[in-house]
Structure formats: structure tokens, C-alpha cells
Amino acid sequence: MKVKVGKFYTYNPCGWDVLDPPVGNPQVGDRLVVVNKHGCPPANTMGHCYVNFADSGEFAGMVKTNSLDKVS
User: Fold this and answer.
1) Can you tell me the mean pLDDT for 4-22?
2) Terminus of the chain with fewer CB atoms < 10 Å: N or C?
3) Mean pLDDT of 42-70
């Protein structure tokens, strides 16, 4: 799945993110926003992206793009 920077998604971890959770430890159902970090590969590189918590703006970590569901 391809994600877009600045868009909101719901976190639903796939197998890789279950075995190796992101640094910010997001929980199932958390709203996240995709971001690009300075000096880091852009979103969708090798199926990964960086995310922040939508409510607080704190860094949530790097997740597989398959772990993000579109917010309807």
C-alpha cells in the first residue's frame, strides 16, 4: 500500500510491526499521520514510513505501510 505524507491513518499492525513494534509504541486503532523526516528516506521507501501521533504530534516511529488503514 502507498501512503501520502500529511494524511491520517489508523494503526492496525501487520506481522512485522507486531514482532518489532515501533519506538513510540502505538496501539491498535491509534490515529497516526505520515511524515517525512529531514535526512531520512521518504515515505513508501521499501514499504516503510515515519509516523506521528495525530493528537499530540509526538513521533510514533517507523512502521510498515501495510500497518496503516485509511481513515474513512
Assistant:
1) 96
2) C
3) 97
Query: What torsion, rounded to 10 degrees, do the Cα atoms 58, 48, 70, 3 define?
Result: 100
Whether 53 contacts 24, CB under 8 Å: yes
- Find where cell 500500500 sits: 1
Q: Are 54 and 68 in contact (CB under 8 A)?
A: no
Q: What is the pLDDT of residues 38-54, one digit of tens each?
A: 999 999 999 999 999 99
* pLDDT computed for residue 11 by the predictor: 97
Residue ranges of alpha helices (H) inside the chain are: 15-19
